UniProtKB/TrEMBL annotation:
Pfam families referenced in this protein's UniProt entry, alphabetically: NB-ARC
Official protein name in the record: TMV resistance protein N
Matches recorded under SUPFAM superfamilies: P-loop containing nucleoside triphosphate hydrolases
Residues of the NB-ARC domain: 47-212
Gene Ontology biological process terms, A to Z: defense response
Length: 212
């Protein structure tokens, strides 16, 4: 017997789809890959807003790469974490690559490439960074990703891990933190933000907050 679908079934189908979307949206919020950032933060709101302007996250037909630079201990990693936490929800996959300099010196560039792939598409073991490049291009070409490369100190790290904007799906964003502003220019990264040291007033505020 051919059972036709009545208006009630149709309504149930739409209700089910609607509920499914709500559940997926809520659970994606709970599954967020939030990173810990210091509880005592000062003067961070304005840098976060300014880098977010450079990132232009709502614009999905382009890929932007943004560099954050400044002297040691000025708060580049902290700023990158705060931005990551506030925008990661807008992306299909995200990855915060900590200490790129240290990891690539210790375990090779292929280790950083493997971490990137395992966080975004699943476990892939690489033995050579030259194999990693086509793998990243192939796997991430269609994905809207958020990538942070923290503490980069050599151009070859940028070449092997984030090559060029067309490696990534539309709407992707890449943030690089470095002490070396010239590396950003070398990689043709035009959107940059220089993080300055805390003003005396804010340094004092931080000291007081930490003391209590
Ligand atoms: N806005 C802020 N308010 C309070 N503390 C901060 C702020 N930014 C950074 N810090 C603190 O300052 C220290 C250095 O910060 P961070 O590691 O982010 O600097 P960095 O610029 O990434 O350093 P490096 O160049 O060595 O990588 C950390 O202990 C961090 O918690
Ligand atoms: Mg740092």
């Amino acid at each position: 017997m051919n059972k036709s679908i009545g208006p009630k079934d149709k309504r149930n189908k739409y209700e089910y789809k609607f509920l499914k979307e709500i559940v997926e949206s809520v659970s994606s919020k709970f599954n967020r890959d939030h990173l810990h950032v210091s509880d005592v933060l000062v003067e961070l709101e304005s840098p976060v807003q300014q880098v977010k302007l450079l990132l232009d996250v709502g614009c999905d037909d382009v890929v932007h790469m943004v560099g954050i630079h400044g002297p040691t201990e000025v708060g580049k990693t902290t700023l990158a974490i705060a931005i990551y936490n506030s925008i990661a929800d807008h992306f299909e996959a995200s990855c915060f690559l900590e200490n790129v300099r240290e990891t690539s010196n210790k375990d090779g560039l292929q280790r950083v490439q493997s971490i990137l792939l395992s966080k975004t598409v699943g476990e892939i073991k690489l033995t050579n960074w030259r194999k990693g490049i086509p793998m990243i291009k192939h796997k991430l070409k269609q994905k809207k990703v958020l990538l942070i490369l923290d503490d980069v100190d050599e151009h070859k790290q940028l070449q092997a891990i984030i090559g060029s904007p067309d490696w990534f799906g539309r709407g992707s964003r890449v943030i690089i933190t470095t002490q070396d502003e010239h590396l950003l220019a070398l990689h043709n990264i035009k959107k940059t933000y220089m993080l300055r040291e805390l003003s005396k007033k804010h340094a004092l505020q931080l000291l007081t907050q930490k003391a209590f």
